[in-house]
Amino acid sequence: MKDLSQKHIVLGLSGGIACYKAAELCRLLIKSGASVQVVMTEAATQFITPVTMQALSGREVFVSQWDDRQSNNMAHINLSRQASAILVAPASADFMAKLIHGRADDLLSLMCLARPLESTPLILAPAMNKEMWSHPATQRNVNQLRQDGAVVLGVAQGEQACGETGDGRMLEPMEIFEELCDFFVPKRLSGRRVLINAGPTFEPIDPVRGLTNLSSGKMGFALAIAAKASGATVTLISGPVHLGTPQGVRRINVQTAKEMHDQVMQEVDQADVFIATAAVADWRVKSYSDAKIKKSPARQAPELEFEENPDILSAVAHSDRARKHQLFCVGFSAESHDLLKHASEKRVRKGVPLMVGNVGPLTFGRDDNELLLIDDQAVKTLERSSKEKLAHLLIADLADRLNGFLKE
Ligand code: C5P
């Protein structure tokens, strides 16, 4: 679960059936440590009660601009001044139309208008029928809201409460929560293109068997998420793993080391950074059998012949672009002992400016890890923590290195 413990979110609800999802969103925000102040329009109270939202947020809910519970009677000013962000979910077509005109005849729209533009971001999660969403008026309003500085999230496609099917459903609570978390990540990699490979490779022996390893792909996927949240354009080349594609990340699936090599080589010209987290098989079976290998009557084990796979990282690190400092390469080194010694040697051997060392048996398949960042000058430890958190720390560290390294 991501940490929003330093954040105060004003969660606004305008009228729409998606209000029921705002209850779950509120729960997620509270669980992540954020404090949440709910503000509802009158229309929203037709769909879900303030009692529900009060119970979930642990705070009194505000609905009316005439509410006299605030001593100065200025809820629209007080509530927005403390907010790290105002998140309106659902944002109805009517509510967005109101905002573009600067109208302010209820507390929520009044508060949005009265917020300090530089310090209180406004994020909207639209929700409406597909015809309402695609109507030129709504699309015009969305564009105008973006020009006015609001962040308008996308909508989901699917079955709607009215029985029709199409675009306009509100994103799921977890998707909105993730978008909000990403919003708060500093955009250190804005304009950068990051290529990551992840997971194991699978080297077939026959149509039903193969050689692989225990890499789960979690670290590589966490790095893809962190790089995306930091503003990068991310391409993720993944071996066979059981992980969903991170939102906004372009994913290419491969099986073998050879396929991974070919895909990386195709993509690397469009990258500024290559992060090699994949556990690439060093060897593939030379004597691949088109038919399933049967047990021999003599019970003799089959003899497998191997040939070496290309070293992807080494190939990329020795490319023209890497040598000309147009591409920054990061390797991962999983060792079982003498981590610093082996990872440092590997950094030099592979020709990369940064090698990230970790202890293989203590990280494969797990959700946490501990990393050593080794360059030609120094060694930095990133203490044991979730792969998610480590990914953000590593991306922040990387962003600093790029500025001194890359020749644009
Ligand atoms: O030599 P070793 O496999 O320990 O090196 C690990 C690093 O090299 C990782 O970054 C891994 O992705 C990369 N590698 C590669 N191609 C290989 C073997 C390893 O890119 N064939």
Descriptive key words:
19 strands; elongated; Rossmann fold; 8-stranded mixed β-sheet; 5-stranded parallel β-sheet; 14 helices
Plain-language structure description:
The protein has 408 residues and is α/β, with parallel strands linked by helices. It has 2 domains: 8-183, Flavin prenyltransferase-like (Rossmann fold, 3-Layer(aba) Sandwich), CATH 3.40.50; 193-283 and 299-403, Rossmann fold (3-Layer(aba) Sandwich), CATH 3.40.50.10300. It is built from 14 helices and 19 strands. It has helices at residues 19-31, 50-57, 75-81, 93-100, 107-114, 130-134, 136-147, 173-184, 218-229, 257-267, 312-317, 320-323, 339-350, 387-405, and strands at 8-13, 35-40, 85-91, 122-126, 151-152, 156-159, 165-169, 193-198, 203-206, 209-211, 233-238, 250-253, 273-276, 283-285, 306-308, 328-335, 354-359, 368-374, 379-386. An 8-stranded mixed β-sheet has the order 12-11-8-13-16-17-18-19, sandwiched between helices. Strands 2-1-3-4-5 form a 5-stranded parallel β-sheet, sandwiched between helices. Helix 1 (19-31) packs parallel to helix 2, helix 3 (75-81) crosses helix 5 and helix 9 packs across helix 14 (387-405). Bound molecules: cytidine-5'-monophosphate. The site of cytidine-5'-monophosphate (C5P) has 13 residues, from helix 11 and strand 16.
